[in-house]
Design a protein that fits this description.
Number of domains: 1
CATH architecture: Alpha-Beta Barrel
Structural class: alpha/beta
Radius of gyration: 18 Å
CATH class: Alpha Beta
CATH superfamily: Dihydropteroate synthase-like
Distance between the termini: 25 Å
Length: 266
Amino acid sequence: MVMLIVGERLNTSSDTVASIVAARDAGALVRVAARQREAGAAYIDVNAGTFAAGEGEALAWMVETIQTALDVPLCLDTSNPAAMAAALRVHRGKALCNSVTLEESRLAPVLELVLESGAAVVALCLDDGGLPVGAGEAVAKGLCLVERLLGGGVPPEDIYVDPLVRPIGADPGAGVAALETIRRLQVEQPGLKTICGLSNISFGLPRRAVVNRAFLVAAMEAGLDAAILDPLDRDLMSLLAATQAVLGRDRYGLAYVRAWRRGSFE
């Protein structure tokens, strides 16, 4: 299976992106989205979480502005059901809702939005008990959420489980736990798809891109199907293409060769 790439660069936790959204600078927003699309992103992640009370309006503006200019589906990155609803109302095509959890106060309203819109979902290994401790607990929470989503009517092909990657700078075992979670989820439920926010692994460390690249290769070997990452990192994308070929996801390395011919590795 070819990796699904979600471009991560439109998050208002970045001062630059926050300024773009605050000023409603449509041209700048579209340029950032377009560069990620051209670099290979199948979805563009949009996050306006720093706008607090104005999150829904800001997120909807991002969605409308990008999709007016580009034919690209978006990953709606919010923990706020009201903001998710505002974004879904204006989204064209099949969105990816990031995210759904087992937290009872959020599960029902978000599930209703997903079913109404036909969106795919990022399902976090998270419930009212908080963050999982170790791979075993993460797998249990993830599978419980998948069962609830399937029971609620979400098609299995529309579910991507996120093991909740945490920074190795804060927890030396976080990378190993995430990799083990990815492996075990697919053993417990064959065909289940997994996704992660790649750059979480390197938070707080110097030269974060180097750590991200190393983790991507390891996660792909563990069976990762999709990642929210920076598609403008050419070294990262080169490793992604090469790893797909090495793992047999790219028959005869044809996609790798096409990328090389396009100059993607230069």
